[in-house]
Amino acid sequence: QVQLVQSGGGLVQPGGSLRLSCAASGNIFNIYDMGWYRQAPGKQLELVARITNGGNSNYDDSVKGRFTISRDNGKRSCILQMNSLRPEDTAVYYCKAEIRDLSYKVLETWGQGTLVTVSS
User: Fold this and answer.
1) 3-state DSSP call for residue 72?
2) What's the pLDDT band for 27 if we cut at 50, 70, 90?
3) In the predicted model, what is the mean pLDDT of the chain?
4) I want to staple 66 with a disulfide (CB 3.0 to 4.6 A). Which of 22, 23, 84, 113 is the partner?
5) Coil, strand, or helix at residue 104?
6) Cα–chain center distance at 50
């Protein structure tokens, strides 16, 4: 069994910053791609940023230059640093990882979600 536990998020004013963290635990053999997704009220889930286990990353155009994704493979964690936040960034953010467990199955694993609200 593997799981992702998220932390961070909350309420911030426009222009502010927040940091989201995600840590994997359980019977893990390896972690491949990790990423952050978000779902705003009334909208579909969308990819925000993704990073490979080699450190290559890509971003949605709407967050390029403002958000930074990083990971620490030793700590099995992934960070999303969000700067210059805008009201349209308001959403529930989810961490996702592709994890190979000790039985060699590859599991698409999601965090529990965390609400980010950008408002004055």
Assistant:
1) strand
2) very high
3) 97
4) 84
5) coil
6) 8
Q: What distances in angstroms separate CA 7 from CA 30, 64, 95, 101, 104, one per listed residue?
A: 22, 22, 10, 23, 28
How far is the C-alpha of 120 from the C-alpha of 116, rounded, in Å? 13
Start-to-end C-alpha separation, the chain: 41
Residue 60, both tokens: 């949605």
Length of the chain, please? 120
pLDDT in tens, 78-96: 999 999 999 999 999 999 9
The DSSP output letter for 64 is T
**Per-residue pLDDT tens for 43-83?**
999 999 999 999 999 999 999 999 999 999 999 999 999 99
